Structures are given as structure tokens and as C-alpha cells.
Amino acid sequence: MIQLYLRFLERERSHPIWLSTGLLDYCGAALREAGLEGMVALVSDTIVATYHGGRIRRSLEEAGFSVLEIQLPPGEGTKTLDTATVLYRSLAQNGIGRDGLLIGLGGGVVLDLSGFVAATYMRGIPFVGIPTTLLAMVDAAIGGKTGVDLPEGKNLVGAFYPPRLLLIDPTALHTLPPAEWRNGMAEVIKAALIGDPELWQQFRSDPARWATIPEEGTLMDLLTRAIAVKIRVVERDPLETRGEREVLNLGHTFGHAFERVSGYRVPHGEAVAVGMVAASVLSAQLGLLEDLDLPRQLEVVLEGIGLPTRWQAWLARCGVDATPEQVIAAMGTDKKRRGGRLRFVVIQRPGVVRVDKDVPYLAVHRALEETAHP
Ligand SMILES: NC(=O)c1ccc[n+]([C@@H]2O[C@H](COP(=O)([O-])OP(=O)(O)OC[C@H]3O[C@@H](n4cnc5c(N)ncnc54)[C@H](O)[C@@H]3O)[C@@H](O)[C@H]2O)c1
Ligand SMILES: [Zn+2]
């Protein structure tokens, strides 16, 4: 078992992260070992429940927990206040109180939503996260951000609420659709560029090796390294008040804009992939990038994994037409003005990134033009 630890503000909000092959089959015992007790509400979506719900429930019951299972429809559409209300009422009707325990089992959607419900129901009940997508294991589950979407925008309502414990079993990924693996890999590449140059070199040396799930040891190493990067960044700026946590948004200012212009019809990981290419070209144009070959190297890695690299060509394949002007407009009202200055995460070299608050509109426009098509 690999054990990591996230120091989140005060001691009481810090928590262990346990990674182990087969952990799902003994999660009940793991919870007991962590000193957790009480009635369990096990929240997942119907897909994850079909694949993994049974063995988790069994393991919990073997460890003496009584379990209330709640299955939600899969997909981003579930991450709403309406669904949160369904959960609150179900907890209340089944007598789960602050001595109970809420487990979120699933991808980022289930973890964000159930973490938010745990944070707010009775002003907070203990929460345990069991992420089952690559994206959730290395990103969504780590760092204590929970929340739901509004019709006006994603993640507009939420709370910082770290879990008591995170349980990560890489074998859960074997049922993941290949496209979801690749989407998660976009965030892993992001993590490598932000804070693990050695992992970045591994991707460079054989990109195709990462197109599908690697063997167990390699997978465990990948997860541990990507999680470690996120832990390091979050620990320096847990509540995102010092701007340091913002570096996790590498490729995301572009990426979110692509998602918005598409009406959220494109996969997030793909948007981040093309967004990172644009961000690396922008960094080069601003004279910040040390090795001007990095954008090309990044494209080779992304192509090897099966991720897109050029935003306009990729959007067209998804049936979306968009101009650079529309993309910049989608970055938000504060970023629309032609003469204005924009805020981006820029890269100096793999492992060294920072926030540039003063990027000229024209530089962004030029980076978009340069990375539109192959
Ligand atoms: N809180 C944060 O810091 C943070 C960070 C990044 C992303 N997020 C959020 O995460 C969400 C995206 O998460 P996601 O990509 O995991 O999406 P998701 O939760 O929708 O999962 C993707 C799909 O995979 C299925 N699935 C999950 N695990 C599976 C498994 N083991 N086998 C087979 N199918 C499985 C799900 O049912 C779903 O259909 C977004 O809402 C995003 O806002 C949050
Ligand atoms: Zn992301």
C-alpha cells in the first residue's frame, strides 16, 4: 500500500490518501483502520455501481457497517442542487446524522456532488472519497474542492471540504471506457508539466505506451506522481487565496473557452489537451519558454496518446465552428477587451510554471491563430 498525506490547513482537515491494488475489496476494513464508524450512505452513479458497487457494499457489510446505497444517473447533468436535495432528503429519511458517514464512489461528478452534500448536510458529516476515473484519482478527488453546477455556469456553488480519507484502487480503472482514460491522461500530462519533469520525460520517451492503461506497477507510479504534484500545489495554497493553486489551470483558460463555445459538447480532457498546446505556444511568444521545441514535443506526446492538438481543427471535427475572437470572448467578460490584459498560466520549462496576469490580447490571439490547424 502506498500512503500519501495531504496537509490541508489545520490538522483536523488533513487526511490520508491510500493507494493499493484491490483496495476496493477491503475498503470496509480500511475504514475501520482509519477509525471511521457509523451508518454509511454509499453514493455512486448507476454505471459505477454496476461495476464496483457490489464488492464495496459487501466489504463494508463484512466490516459491520450498515449501508444505504444511493445511485444517481451518470453524467455532468447530475451535479446540481436538485440532486443535492434528493441526497439530503434521502439521508434525513434514513436517519443518517453527524455520526454517520458519506462515501462518494465514482468519477469527478459523484465526488464533487457527494462531497458538497457531506459538507453542507447538518453543517458537515464525515466524507470518504473513492474515485474511479483517472481524472478523479489524480485531480477531482484531491484538494478538498466540492461543488455543483448552476444553469449559469459550472462549479458556481461549492465548499472546501476535504474528505476524512481517500481510497484509490487502480484496478477500478480497468472498466473505464478508453476515451475516459485518455481524458484523464490530459490532466496527468498537465501535472507532469507543472511539477514532475521526470514523468514528462517518461511520456516523451514512449508516448504510445500511455494510450491505454499500463501494467500495474507503472500505473501505480503514474498515479502516485500525478497525485503528489497536486498535493504539493494544494498544500501551498489550500483555499486558492495566494494564486499558487491557480497554476493547476495550465491549459484550462483556453480549454474552458473551447468548452464554452461548444456549449459543453466536447470532452474536458480533449479541451485541456488543445488548451495546453495553445498555452505552450503563448509562453513561447511571450519569450518565457526556455526550450522552443516544447510545443512540438507536447503535440507528439498528445498524438501518441490519442488526444487532439489543434483546437480549430478539433472543434470542427466535433461539429463546432469558432473563431479566435469567439474563443477569447468565451474566456469571460474581463478578457474581452481588445486592448486589455489577460491572465494565463504560462510555462517556462517542464516543472516551472507560473501565472502571468498581464498577457496582451494580441499575444493570445496570435497563439490561437498559430495553433488552430496542423
Ligand atoms: N473538485 C475538483 O477539484 C475537480 C477537479 C477537476 C474536475 N472536477 C470535476 O470532475 C468532473 C468530471 O469528472 P470525470 O471525468 O471523472 O467524469 P464523470 O464523473 O462524469 O465520469 C465519467 C464517466 O465514467 C463513468 N465511470 C466512472 N468510473 C468508472 C469506472 N471505473 N468504470 C466505468 N465507468 C466509469 C461514469 O459513470 C461517467 O459516465 C467535472 O464535473 C469537473 O468539474 C473537479
Ligand atoms: Zn481539468
Describe the structure.
This protein has 374 residues and is an alpha/beta fold. It folds into two domains: 2-175, Rossmann fold; 181-370, Dehydroquinate synthase-like - alpha domain (Dehydroquinate synthase-like, alpha domain, Up-down Bundle), CATH 1.20.1090.10. It is 45% helix and 18% strand. The strands form three sheets. Strands 1-2-9-6-5-3-4 form a seven-stranded mixed beta sheet, with helices on both faces. It has a two-stranded antiparallel sheet with strand order 7-8. A two-stranded antiparallel sheet has the order 10-11. Helix 10 crosses helix 14. Bound molecules: nicotinamide-adenine-dinucleotide and zinc ion (ZN). The site of zinc ion has 4 residues, from helix 10.
Summarize it.
This protein is 45% helix and 18% strand. It is of the alpha/beta class.
Query: Which strand-content bin applies to the residues?
Result: 15-25%
The N- to C-terminal Cα distance equals 44 Å
When the domains are counted, the total is 2
Relative helix content: 40-55%
The secondary-structure element order is EEHEHEHEHEHEEEHHHHHHHHEEH
Distinct bound molecules: nicotinamide-adenine-dinucleotide, zinc ion
Strand order of the largest sheet: 1-2-9-6-5-3-4
CATH superfamily of the largest domain: Dehydroquinate synthase-like - alpha domain
CATH fold naming of the largest domain: Dehydroquinate synthase-like, alpha domain
Name of the CATH class of the largest domain: Mainly Alpha
- What does the largest sheet look like? 7 strands, mixed
Structural class: alpha/beta
